[in-house]
Design goal:
The structure holds 2 protein chains of 2 kinds.
Chain A: H1 6-22, H2 27-49, E1 56-59, E2 65-67
Antiparallel strand pairs in A: 1-2
Chain B: H1 8-20, E1 28-39, E2 45-50, E3 55-60, E4 77-87, E5 92-102, H2 105-122, E6 139-144, H3 149-161, E7 166-171, H4 179-190, E8 197-202, H5 207-210, H6 216-224, E9 229-233, H7 241-245, E10 248-250, H8 253-260, H9 264-297, H10 300-303, H11 307-343, H12 345-348, H13 350-371, H14 373-378, E11 383-386, E12 389-390, E13 402-407, E14 410-415
Helix pairs in contact in B: 3-8, 4-6
Classes of the chains: A mainly alpha, B alpha/beta.
């Protein structure tokens, strides 16, 4: 599950919550799904808490990529 | 003929009539520079339209002026659509303007409308072709000038809202004759990279500045782009062909960045909400199941599990009793039969049978002894037989017959003489 992108994680989380709220899930499965969902919450939160600075790069005509600073 | 004169009015009316017959003059486009522009209290405007060599008086009536997108001034280069007629009172012909646009811009405007109509007819603006803009992009491409407000606004906004996303800049000229070609090349170049969303645009400028984004080649490249494209050209009021053909139109470059990435705070709030729903759901589910469990465990059968087999045991007991009764009855009946049989005299005294059988036998034996002919022989009588048969009359034999005479102790053979 750690390999999912942020978007996929969030989508999956939403899907599970909706599914659980529909009430069609047997208890045993629901508990498994709940644990999965809790893990997804953690993954999503982790991804957002990482203090990443968005990196701007410029692609040269020859395909080379260089860091870009706002002028 | 030489004595015939026209009045001034007549000659002017005649000339006016002549001009009115000329279809070319009924609908003309005239390009020139405005001078002596003056609007009278009546609301009508009078001016002179001129070029380097010549000039023509012109008028625009109040009723026509609603179509003006600008305030005409002296020195402005304009294109006027209208008709040429004679103003008979002054004996001068003049241009009656119905529309007036700024020169250059007017031509561009026509080109814009024509291209827009053409591409729309081809379906390039159809919603069906528009791609979804990814909600949580990992990498955003920007095709714009690497210098200027646009790229600065985009990067700043993305950093502020969603700093988890990489920005790849594909720098291009955004105005001038070279721009369209470069924009096209960079949009194509961007598609060689793993990019979620592509922003194509520039900051504000005059309509000429924005023009590359109205070029057909740019529009078609955006349409063909595999990556979802957000167009961000100029300001809110500026609409370009790129805006119509892109998957999403942003009013400004900053606006494009806001469409391209979510606001981290909103995302965090969303996750918190999902987390809350998740926990509430699980709590509800557990409490529901607990209630169910309690309810079930209150049932008599579980409280008193013996009752499951008590009934069966009762049935079994019942059957056993029945069986016992039935077999007892059987035994008694058979016992009685046996007793009855045992009680019979015959069985109690078997010699009686012998005695009962022997008595008649002995009686019959005595009778038989009385009748036995052979016993008679013992007393001296004989038995005469002819050919094995007993002879009981003398008439049965004739002379010469061989007779057997049986004695008690043997047989002699005789012949009748």
């Amino acid at each position: 599950m750690e390999n999912l992108s942020f978007e996929e994680s969030l989508e999956k989380l939403e899907e599970i919550v909706n599914k659980l709220e529909s009430g069609d899930v047997p208890l045993d499965d629901a508990i498994d799904e709940f644990n999965n969902a809790m893990q997804l919450v953690k993954i999503c939160e982790n991804k957002l808490s990482v203090a990443e600075e968005s990196i701007a790069k410029i692609v040269k005509d020859n395909g080379q990529i260089e860091d870009f600073n706002i002028q | 003929m030489e004595n015939e004169y026209y009045t001034v009015s007549q000659i002017n009316a005649y000339i006016n009539k002549k001009l009115k017959f000329d279809n070319n003059l009924k609908n003309v486009y005239v390009k020139g520079e405005i001078s002596n522009f003056k609007t009278y209290s009546s609301g009508h405007s009078y001016f002179t339209l001129k070029d380097e060599k010549s000039q023509i008086p012109a008028v625009m009536f109040k009723g026509r002026k609603h179509s003006l997108k600008f305030q005409p001034e002296d020195g402005m280069k304009v294109i006027i659509k209208g008709k040429v007629e004679v103003f008979e009172r002054d004996g001068k012909y003049q241009l009656y303007a119905t529309t007036m646009t700024e020169d250059g811009i007017g031509a561009l405007y026509v080109a814009f409308e024509q291209l827009k109509k053409k591409l729309k007819a081809e379906g390039l603006f159809d919603d069906a072709h528009k791609k979804e803009i990814p909600e949580y992009p990992r990498r955003i491409g920007v095709v714009t000038a690497q210098t200027g407000a646009a790229i600065r606004d985009i990067i700043t906004t993305i950093k502020k809202r969603y700093p988890y996303c990489e920005v790849l800049i594909f720098s291009t000229l955004v105005q001038g004759d070279q721009a369209a070609g470069q924009i096209v090349r960079q949009i194509k170049h961007a598609q060689e990279f793993d990019i979620d969303t592509l922003i194509v645009g520039r900051g504000g400028g005059s309509i000429e500045d924005l023009w590359p984004f109205n070029e057909e080649i740019v529009a078609r490249t955006i349409y063909d782009c595999k990556i979802p494209v957000i167009s961000a050209v100029g300001h809110e009021i500026d609409w370009t062909i790129s805006d119509y053909v892109a998957d999403k139109r942003a009013p400004t470059p900053t606006g494009a960045a806001m469409i391209a990435v979510p606001d981290t705070n909103e995302v965090k709030f969303k996750i918190t909400q999902l987390n809350g729903r998740l926990n509430k759901n699980m709590k509800d589910m557990i409490s529901q199941n607990k209630t169910k469990l309690n309810h079930i465990s209150q049932k008599q059968i579980l409280k008193n599990p013996e009752s499951i087999y008590e009934i069966k045991a009762m049935i079994l007991d019942n059957l056993v009793t029945k069986l016992e009764l039935a077999s007892k009855k059987n035994i008694v009946e058979n016992k009685n039969k046996l007793l009855k049989l045992e009680n019979r005299n015959i069985l109690r005294n078997p010699e009686e049978i012998l005695r009962m059988k022997r008595e008649p036998y002995l009686r019959n034996l005595d009778k038989l002894n009385v009748l036995n002919p052979l016993l008679t022989l013992k007393r001296g009588y004989t038995l005469t037989k002819l050919e094995g048969k007993v002879v009981s009359s003398a008439k049965e034999v004739k002379s010469g017959d061989q007779l057997d005479v049986e004695f008690d102790d043997g047989v002699i053979n005789t012949r009748v003489i």
